[in-house]
User: Fold this.
Amino acid sequence: MAYTLDSELVPVMTALAAAATAPTPARGDWKALRVQANAGLAHLATLVPPSSGVATATYVATAPDGASLELRWYTTHNPSPGSAVLYAHGGGLIGGSLDLYDEVLSWYVAQTGVPFLAVDYRLAPEATGTMVAQDIFTGLTWLLEHAQELGVDPGRIAVMGDSGGAGPAAASAIIARDHGITLARQILIYPMLDERTLTPDPAREPFLTWTYDNNFTSWSALLGDQLGRDSVSPLAAPARLTDFAGLAPAYLDVGDLDIFRDETITYARNLARAGVPIELHVHPGVPHGWERFAPNSRAARRALADRARAVGSI
Assistant:
């Protein structure tokens, strides 16, 4: 049976296609793709339902190489020690920022009451190899070191990310395990995990919002001439991991019309085979990022409610 787009998304995607004016970035042109990604994220931020009662504070963490990383702390006024989420924003590894995710993270905090710490990690190609994962882990280390003053229980911290941020979030969970740090959960939203996802699937290509060419461009920016080689580290591409034992329990969701579908399912299966508890959602008829550009669709409301439940249960 042929793939079909969720009926509620048909008019939305038709309108998006009609409104598109910028040329499609050429394969390998990370600068053009960054501009496109940031413009898209800025538009999507206007579609997030407004949130109230969320306060923010800015901190700075120092990466192992001496770089300063901005951290943004989102919280409601809850004086009791509790859970927290470390978040890595999306943007395909080459785009995105804290400002472009302000509305998204405020929504999660307002819906769940759980504070979030977002990391302004360095982007490819300025950051290469495992640097992005190490930046996210730097944020996690900072959160653990400051847990008491922030009212956070160190045993109730999760890492979370979407798209290009979900891969480094997964990698930070690997680093945490290898350093003996116990995370409460890893929450991976249509995660970008495998640099080998480059072969087009003609049946799904008409529905894609993140394309195989985009994927090649972004992974090439991160890995350069190491792309596809056996030497690629799982801290750069978590799908390369061979030992999944002892990783944090995982929540994963992805659309059936997303090029990240198969790598997400495979990652969840590998976690499960290693005895790691998982919750996996594959949403039919929707592409990458569908809940951002069609937030009022039933598919989006279901996904967002499940994510809020997963966050709230930490």
Remarks:
- The chain has a mean pLDDT of 96.
- Residues 30-45 form the longest helix (16 residues).
- DSSP finds ten helices and eight strands in the chain.
